[in-house]
Amino acid sequence: MQLTKCIIPHTIANMISFEDVHLSFGKNEVLRGINLKIERGSKTVIIGPSGGGKSTLLRTVNRFEKPNKGRVIVNGHDLNAATGKQLNTLRQGIGMVFQSFNLYPHKTALENLTMAPLTLKRGSKDEVMSRARENLRAVGLADRADSYPSQLSGGQQQRVAIARALTMNPDILLFDEPTSALDPEMIQEVLEIMEEVAQRQNITMLFVTHEMRFAEHISDRVLFLDEGQIMEDGPPHQVFHQPKTTRMTAFLGKILH
Amino acid sequence: MNGPFSIRNWRTWFKAAPLFLRGYGQTLLISLWGLLIALLIGVFAGIALTSRANGRQRALAAIMRGYMSFFQNTPLMIQVFIFYNVLPKMGVRLSVTMVGVLGLALYTGAYAADIVASAIRAVPLGQTEAAESQGFSRAQTLWLVILPQSVKIALPAMTNQVVNLIKNSSVLAVIAGGELMYVADSWSGSNLIYGPTFVMTGLLYLAICLPISMIARQLEKRSVRNV
Ligand SMILES: Nc1ncnc2c1ncn2[C@@H]1O[C@H](COP(=O)(O)OP(=O)(O)OP(=O)(O)O)[C@@H](O)[C@H]1O
Ligand SMILES: [Mg+2]
User: A172-176 and A204-208 as β-strands: parallel, antiparallel, unpaired?
Assistant: First the structure.
């Protein structure tokens, strides 16, 4: 796949750049001018009240949502300019973990990991298979390789989904509230796996989460998104303990009580 | 004993039974081919109805909806009659069997399309998102992720359509289709033996349709359990 054509050289130092991103659904202006540079390998957490645009922002990174104005540049590629084929190739390197897992129910756990990389040729068959086994082991489910999603608990399904995203060898991983649909007793096991995954230095990660302790622990940067704007942007200890805006203080007050 | 169900009438019918079995064979053959083509039409039209990403796809969807509206809202008998009488005038020469297959296929395909389309729509949006987030193209997403799940959803309703198709094949009697109902109609008319003829003909339809209905019911139960 020819991707070089849409590369913008000066943006390459950052993995993701948002340049004045505006996005509306009808009259509802959801993103109101986002400017951000996300460094390679960084772990960024996005927090904020419901409806503030967190999911929408995350979904512009793999162009599930397209800005009305401004652009998102991923690994040097302007997503607005990408053709359908280029977009598919780019998406192979951008994993997404969903709130509702979205495993393929007609495939076993192992097949969920291998289907895309085998079909899309992200490595030889042997490489993909050993990578998949390794990732299943990493999420503690080596013994469930042949189970179907319906035979797994929610926590186990989300761990498989994380392993599925990893098996594509992504440059970027997007997590959209990965623990929000889980029963309370399963949240911890998934958070622990995500903590381990966050150790992988070569993957740039964006997390949308309401798990503040997890956020503070694993991130090197926290963004507070409210009404479509970045209200706070800094290292976790600063955003959580010395917030600059009253909105952030109010938000923290609400979620901690 | 006299009347329509007299011993003599039964005896005469059983002597003619091979004729009916040949007609039965013809019914099953036409049904099988009709079903295969109806399924192809149903899958194609069902996909067309659910993919409207660009202008060409929307146009195709509109054409399919037109096709379905016509074939769902006119009697099969009239469709078959038109094929039988109009196609030759347009220079298309088809055997009666082929006309029968085509008529049944187009009629059943119009219903199969609805079933396929709603089965595709029944697969959660998250499945498409998961597949596209991994870099699958639209076609790959449909083929590898959506359709395998749609098949399971569509199976009970589709099985019911098979039963309808077999019963509907009796309409081909109007064009001398040589299938079971035609044999029953013409034989009983010339021999004036109606009782045994229509009882046995009914039983022959029952013998193939009932097992298929039972399979459909079983599939329905299973899919309810899996939800
Ligand atoms: N596909 C869509 N069509 C129309 N409106 C949408 C769509 N997706 C999101 N919205 C609207 O955009 C706004 C922002 O939604 P978004 O999902 O980005 O918020 P969020 O910060 O992720 O909230 P939550 O914490 O509840 O997930 C909301 O008002 C929502 O109703
Ligand atoms: Mg959200």
Answer: parallel
Which chain A residues in 124-183 lie under 8 Å from chain B, judged by CB atoms?
A: 150, 164, 168
Q: What is the pLDDT of residue B94?
A: 86
CB A52 near ligand 1, within 6 Å: yes
Domains and CATH numbers, chain B: 7-226 (1.10.3720.10)
Give chain B positions within 8 Å (CB) of A62.
133
Distance CA A179, CA A190 (A): 7
What pTM does this model have? 0.89
Q: Which of A149, A138, A155, A158 is nearest to A111 (CA)?
A: A149
pLDDT digits (tens, 9 = 90+) for A197-256: 999 999 999 999 999 999 999 999 999 999 999 999 999 999 999 999 999 999 998 887
> What's the CA gap between A153 and A84, in Å, rounded?
36
Q: Which residues of A131-167 are buried (b: 16+ CB within 10 A; e: fewer)?
A: bbbebbebbebeebbebbbeebebbbbbbbbbbbbbb
pLDDT digits (tens, 9 = 90+) for A1-26: 455 555 665 556 799 999 999 999 99
A249 in contact with ligand 1, CB cutoff 6 A: no
Question: In this structure, what token pair is assigned to residue B157?
Answer: 């309703």
Residue length, chain A?
Answer: 257
Please enumerate in sequence order all residues whose Cβ is within 8 A of that of B178, keeping only pairs 6 or more positions apart, or say none.
Answer: B23, B26, B96, B97
